[in-house]
Amino acid sequence: MNAEPADHIQKLTAALRTAAANAIDEMSGGIALIFVSTTASVLDMRLRAAAGFKRPDEARDAAARVLPGVREIVGFQETRSLPPEPTLGERARAAVVVHPLLHEGVLHGALVTAALTELAPQQQTGLGVLASHVALLCAHAQLEREHAELREQLSGRDVGGEDGSEEVLRLSEELFAQDIELLRSNEKLGKIERLKNDFIEKMSRELRTPLNSIIETIISVLTSENENLSEGAKDAMRAALDDGTAFLRTLQNILDLWRIKQGELPVEIQDVNLRELIDEAVFNTQEAIGSKAISIQQNLVEPLPRIRADLTKLTQILFLLLDNAAKFTPEGGIEIGARVEEGRLFCTVRDTGIGICPDDQQFIFDEFYQVDDPSSEKYRGAGLGLTLVRDLIVLLEGELSITSDAGRGTLVAFDIPIQTVV
Predict the structure, then answer these.
(1) In this predicted model, what pLDDT tens digit does every residue of 282-325 receive, in sequence order?
(2) Which tens digit of pLDDT belongs to each residue from 46-89?
(3) 231: burial class by Cβ within 10 Å (0-12, 13-18, 19+)?
(4) H/E/C letters for each residue in the chain?
(5) What is the b/e burial string over 176-214, where b = at least 16 CB atoms within 10 angstroms of the residue's CB?
(6) Lower Cβ count inside 10 Å, N or C end of the chain?
(7) Starting at the edge strand that comes first in sequence, how are the strands of the sheet with 344-351 ordered?
(8) Could you tell me if 99 and 91 are in contact, meaning their C-beta atoms sit under 8 angstroms apart?
C-alpha cells in the first residue's frame, strides 16, 4: 500500500494528539498511547500519538513495553486490561487498559491508557466513546488516502474512465457519509463535555450548600453550648468541624481547577494590603500545624507597598503553599518571604520538611498526585494543592519554580505582575 500523502498524515497526527490529550483529561492524569496500523495486521501497529509524558523518549519506551500485550489483546476486539506496569512510572499506577480502535468491524489500532487511580464508571464510558471516535478518525483518513490515490491514478487517463469515475464517486459518497458521522461523533463528545460541566455545577450546588450548613451548625453549637458540652463531645465536634472544613476546601479546589480549564475563572484586580494578606495566610495555617513543633517566620523586604492584584487568588496561593509546607514538615520551621520589585511581586515559601525526591519532582504538579503512598493517611489530602497553585499563577501570568532535597525541605518561589498603589 502506498504511503499516506503528507497532508493526510499531518491532519491525522494532529487529531490523534488531541485525542490522546483528551484521554488524559478524562482520567484526570495518567498516560495515553495511540497505536495505529496501516495494514490489516496488528503486527504493523506503531505509535502515532502519546500524552502524559515529559519527553518523547519516555513515550517510545512505554510503547515498547506494552506493545506485545496490546497486540495480544486487540485480536479479541474488545476492551481488556493488562496488569499494572511498574516501569511506566508514577503516572500509571492503575492497570493498563487497551481499547481496540474498531470501526464497522475493521481494526485500526488501539488506545492504551493507564491512570493514577482506578477509574469511575463514567470515566471508563468516556474513554470508550473516545476510542470509537479515534477509530472513526483512522477509518476516515484511510478512505481519504484511497480516494486521493485513485484520483491521482485516473488523472490524465482516458482508459477505464467510466469504471474509474464510478469508483471515485463511490469513495466520495463514503467520505461524505463519514464526514457526517464525524460531525455526530464530535457532537457526542461535546455532549459528554456538557454533561461533565453540568455534573460539576450540580456538585457545587448539591454538596457545598448542605456542607456549609453543617459547618455553621457545628460552630453554633460549639459557641452557644460550650459550657454544657463534655470535653469528649467538644473534641468530637472540633474534629467534625476540621474534617468538614477540609472537605469544603477540597471541593472548592476541584471547582476552581475545573473553572480554570473552562476559562470561567476571571481575574479580579483590587487594592491589596500585603502585610495583612500574609498575616491572614499565616494565621489560617495554624490549623494544619496543630500540635507540631513548627514556627512560621516572615521575611518581608522593605518597602512593602500596597499593590493592585487579585486578592482572592493571591490569598488562595499563599494559603495552599503554607498549608502544604505545614503538612509535610513534622517539625522545624517555615519561612514566607515577599518583596516588590520592578512591577512584580516575588514570594517564597521555604520549609524544613521531608522534601521531595528527584523521581517525584517531575510529577508534583499533576492532579491527584501524592508523594506518599495513596493508601496511607500519614499525609492527608487530595493531591490538588500544587496543581491549583500552578494553574492560578499561570492565570495571573506569573512564574513558578520549586527546588527540594529529600529530607532537607522544599523551596517554592513564584512571581506575578502587579501594580503599585501610590
Answers:
(1) 888 887 787 788 888 989 888 888 889 999 899 999 999 998 88
(2) 888 888 887 788 888 888 888 888 888 887 788 888 887 777 77
(3) exposed
(4) CCCCCHHHHHHHHHHHHHHHHHHHHHHCCCEEEEEECCCCCHHHCEEEEEECCCCHHHHHHHHHHHHHHHHHHHCCCCCEEECCCHHHCHHHCCCEEEEEEEECCEEEEEEEEECCCCCCHHHHHHHHHHHHHHHHHHHHHHHHHHHHHHHHHHCCCCCCHHHHHHHHHHHHHHHHHHHHHHHHHHHHHHHHHHHHHHHHHHHHHHHHHHHHHHHHHHHHHHHHCHHHCCHHHHHHHHHHHHHHHHHHHHHHHHHHHHHHHCCCCCCCCEEECHHHHHHHHHHHHHHHHCCCCEEEEEEECCCCCCEEECHHHHHHHHHHHHHHHHHCCCCEEEEEEEEEECCEEEEEEEECCCCCCHHHHCCCCCCCCCCCCCCCCCCCCCCCHHHHHHHHHHHCCCEEEEEEECCCEEEEEEEEECEECC
(5) eebeebbeebeeebeebeeebeeebeeebeeeeeeeeee
(6) C
(7) 294-300, 332-341, 344-351, 409-417, 399-405
(8) no
Tell me the three cell numbers of residue 216. Answer: 455553621
